[in-house]
Amino acid sequence: MRIDILCKPESGKRCEQTLKNVRLALSRAGVEAEVHLYRDRRKMIDNRVYVSPALLIDDSVRIAGRVPEVEEIVRFIAERPRYHKRLQRVA
User: Fold this and answer.
1) Chain Cα centroid distance, residue 45
2) pTM for the predicted model, two decimal places
3) Per-residue pLDDT of the chain (91 residues; tens, 9 = 90+)
């Protein structure tokens, strides 16, 4: 799983809070993922995101323009098909 956080270069606390919430959600869900924080306008435009911060999970824009809550990120992680396969193997 890959999680990208896209921010404008001048963005500060909102991007850091989003990164903190993503890490907390991953630890609650017990899932390992690559987490990248980009402060690049070109990357935002390439993904058709014009407000920051934006949260992308496996190259799919899930949230843009606000800091997501931890529970919300956990729900997004649980929706991923790979996550369901991992749960089936355990059960």
Assistant:
1) 17
2) 0.80
3) 899 999 998 878 999 999 999 999 999 988 888 999 999 899 999 989 999 899 999 888 999 999 999 999 999 888 876 655 555 555 5
